[in-house]
Specification:
Ferritin_DPS_dom; DNA starvation/stationary phase protection protein Dps; single chain; oxidoreductase activity, acting on metal ions; two-stranded parallel sheet; ferric iron binding; Ferritin; 173 residues; elongated; 6 helices
Length: 173
Amino acid sequence: MSSNNASQVADFTAPGMNSESADKVIAILDDRLVALLDLQLTLKHVHWNVVGPNFIGVHEMLDPQVDAVREMTDTIAERIATLGGVPVGTPKAIAERRRWEDYSLGKGLVAEHLVALDKVYNGVNGDHREAMETLAELDPVSEDMLTGQLAELEQFQWFVRAHIESSSGELKS
């Protein structure tokens, strides 16, 4: 990641926050921005490529998730700007800053996509939780923002898991 993406570029940050803390918060939020932009695109990809029994239910379940995640990215980008940073959401910059492999399924059955999507949510949600722990010390406002997002993201994962869970509570893998 280039230093311009992670560092503060304005001569200001939020009142009461020093520049060093702002830089750290911006870097954490930038990572979450990349993850949510990637999730948004992955959800839409699954929406377009899921087939088989229960197709329509999954197809229709995903669009509200896409919309909600899109709003989350906007909130994070605006927080980065509030702290004096520059939110960067161009495709090349997103790909360069990604720390994980691309979603590997193309056209696939409902169960295949939902098992893979559950793994995507594991990564996004786990990293959101870790970011919140760090932000608790640096910026409670950003921590609170991610806390609200994580509540929605965990619910979305529960929706996904409901399709791949057995009656005994085991997930397909």
